[in-house]
Design a protein that fits this description.
The chain is an alpha/beta fold. The chain has helices at about 15-30, 40-45, 65-75, 90-100, 110-140, 145-155, 160-165, 170-185, 190-200; strands spanning about 10, 35, 55, 80-85, 105. A five-stranded parallel beta sheet has the order 2-1-3-4-5, with helices on both faces.
Length: about 200
């Protein structure tokens, strides 16, 4: 997803008034907001492989915000988490950041403070989704296609690749075409971008 501003914002809080107020404010800024009254409801309905910004209450009946965050990490979810709590403290915030949270806010929070966090989380989530998608496509490459990928992104031309791999230029062209098709790339610039995304 190139336009991270289109990444949805999920709001999970057992307090109806908090959800209603936040949703009203955030939708006023053009954000797409979906709210849930529990961690269980959220996990049961959302595709964790899709990008999203999750604004998560820390203390809730049933699954706590920390429990939900842990499940997201266990499932390698693409979502980025912003904790929003009325009972936070420094150790809680430190733990949340160590486990990959994007930000941590105390209730009540001003829109001016929350919006930059949301934008950051949307971008992080979109990039994470792109990385996962690229890695899945890369995993479908054959060993020969991976060899070509490494050489092509280094700027090695087909004739030189053929010489290095002791195959014909025509064979290089066939493997290169299949490799690019599997990766969903149409030119060298897109291949380099994919290489950057999967290198971590």
């Amino acid at each position: 997803m190139d336009n991270h501003s289109e990444v949805p914002v999920y709001l999970v809080d057992d307090d109806h008034s908090v959800r209603e107020a936040l949703r009203y404010v955030l939708e006023g800024y053009g954000l797409k907001v979906v709210d849930f009254d529990s961690g269980e409801a959220f996990l049961n309905q959302i595709n964790l492989s899709q990008p999203g910004c999750l604004i998560l209450d820390s203390r809730m009946p049933g699954l706590s915000g920390q429990d939900v965050h842990q499940k997201l990490n266990q499932n390698d979810a693409c979502l980025d988490v912003i904790f929003l709590t009325g009972h936070g403290d420094m150790p809680m915030a430190i733990k949340a950041f160590r486990e990959g949270a994007c930000d941590f806010h105390q209730k009540p929070v001003r829109a001016a403070d929350l919006l930059p966090s949301i934008e950051k989380a949307q971008l992080n989530s979109a990039v994470r989704s792109q990385k996962q998608s690229c890695k899945k496509r890369f995993d479908t490459l054959t060993e020969r296609e991976r060899q070509l990928f490494e050489l092509v992104v280094k700027g090695v031309i087909n004739k030189q690749i053929a010489d290095q791999l002791c195959i014909s230029v025509r064979t290089v062209e066939v493997h290169r075409s299949k490799m690019m098709e599997r990766l969903g790339a149409s030119n060298i610039t897109e291949l380099i971008k994919i290489a950057e995304l999967i290198k971590d």
